[in-house]
Amino acid sequence: MENRTFLKRPLLFRGVNLAWKAAYPLGSRIKLEKDDLISRARKITGLTYLGADFWDEPVDRMLRSINEEANLHPIGRFITRERLVSLISIRLRAEYYFKKHPEILEQELYPAWIIVGLQRTGTTKLQRMLAVDVNHRVIPSWEVINPMPLNLDFKPSGVYEDPKRIKVARMSVKAVELMSPGFFAIHPIDAMQPEEDILMLDVSFLSTTTEAMMNVPSYAAWLEQTDQSPAYEYAVKLFKFLQWVKPAKRWVLKTPHHLEFPHLITKYFNDVKFIWPHRNIYESVPSYLSMLTYNYMMFSDDVDERRIAAHWVRKTGYMLEQALNFRLRDGNGKNFLDIYYKDLIADSIRELGRIYSMDGGLNEPLIEGFKRHEQEHPHLKHGIHQYSLGDFGLTETDIDRHTSNYQDFIKEHYGRK
User: Fold this and answer.
1) Closest to 95 measured CA to CA, from 198, 238, 229, 199
2) Fewer beta carbons below 10 Å: N end or C end of the chain?
3) Given a cut of 80, is residue 365 above it in pLDDT?
4) What is the pTM of this model?
5) Burial level of 307, CB count in 10 A (0-12/13-18/19+)?
6) pLDDT at position 4 over 70
């Protein structure tokens, strides 16, 4: 039986959209044009320089696709404008700080443990537990949203947390709660907890974030055929700023996006170990499709869950193929460590011990810290996430068509799917 409750929108959200759209003839429709977005960002920051390596084409293609294909509702257009202006503002502030403090880019990037599992495979739980270790540098949600300080007179100090940026992040969390209350049962957002570093790639407008929020097929197709080197090269600059602000021993990063580009990770990062969580693909895929549906509804009324499924089942298979191809050649496999989702849920300390075997093993203070974190953030804290393949018109055969090589790999590795 199909469960379509995820297609319901809060009454207030629908009311605001209806009223706003009715006012379009009066000129209330928000523009999404590159020059306007850049102008707004420059006005907000008081800065003008976007960097010698700023590339216009990704912005142009993204905006064309959004305007012609995404069919955004009024709130969706507003959120999109604010998000894109924020990304441009981040870049403006970054260039300001790189020029003001050239020692930032002279640093060597820390070694990294990079979590590369598919969505809905325990990647968030794993990263947030690893963040308990004070030797690990993660990017909490408040810093992901605004990695560069809002004030231009910032200097590193013993006080790391920024009340202004934390306030912005908490407002964003509240907005998601209002627009999509069921979202938190899928992915709990917390202003103070680590979040995906894909947002560092967003600053170059070269990431899958946009296609995970709205229907932009032409941009997604162009992106898949385009060299992502500029995004990873610039992200490293941002990571260097962040470690300049708060030093540590190593980076602990995560985003499924990296599955598609492990070759760029090894090119631009220093001393990388990949941690790859796995889960039964028939569970992880519909779970992620449900999450995507919630995402899309925050931006558009034209949400077709079967269209979402058609795009992302193929995309998921493509990402897995890219990762497997990289892993299985040139001895790259030695840099991967696998975690199985059910094992992580059943005995996280044991699985963390396997990870820490790469760094001398666990100690009692760390174990106590991990246990405390689990007590404070229990599994299913925000409710049960219900989903099925049938919700998206899919069968296991549809999944197999795109992921058979990955399933064979998992079966060989674990003796189970």
Assistant:
1) 238
2) N
3) yes
4) 0.92
5) middle
6) no
Residue pLDDT, tens place only, 21-71:
999 999 999 999 999 999 999 999 999 999 999 999 999 999 999 999 999
Q: Contact 340/279 with Cβ under 8 angstroms?
A: yes
Domains, the chain, ordered by start: 5-414 (3.40.50.300)
HEC assignment per residue over the chain: CCCCHHHCCCHHHHHHHHHHHHCHHHCCCCCCCHHHHHHHHHHHHCCCCCCCCCCHHHHHHHHHHHHHHHCECHHHHHHHHHHHHHHHHHHHHHHHHHHHCCHHHHCCCCEEEEECCCCCCCHHHHHHHHCCCCCEECCEHHHHHCCCCCCCCCCCCCCCCCHHHHHHHHHHHHHHHHHCHHHHHCCCCCCCCECCCHHHHHCCCCCCCHHHCCCCHHHHHHHHCCCCHHHHHHHHHHHHHHHHHCCCCEEEEECHHHHHCHHHHHHHCEEEEEEEEECCHHHHHHHHHHHHHHHHHCCECCCCHHHHHHHHHHHHHHHHHHHHHHHCCCCHHHHEEEEEHHHHHHCHHHHHHHHHHHHCCCCHHHHHHHHHHHHHCCCCCCCCCCCCHHHHCCCHHHHHHHHHHHHHHHHHHHCCC
Structure confidence by residue, pLDDT tens digits, 271-305: 999 999 999 999 999 989 988 998 899 899 999 99
* Torsion sign across C-alpha atoms 66, 72, 74, 77: negative
Kindly report the length of the chain.
417
Name the average pLDDT for the chain.
92
Q: Enumerate the β-bridge partners of residue 253.
A: 114
Q: 166 pLDDT exceeds 70?
A: yes
Question: What percent of the chain has pLDDT above 90?
Answer: 80
- Residue pLDDT, tens place only, 186-219: 667 788 999 999 999 999 999 999 999 999 999 9
Q: What token pair was written down for 373?
A: 């974190």
Q: Hey, how many other C-beta atoms are within 10 angstroms of the C-beta on 132?
A: 19
CA distances for 234 relative to 59, 103, 207, 273, 363, angstroms: 15, 16, 12, 21, 36
Q: Write out the two tokens for 346.
A: 């059943």
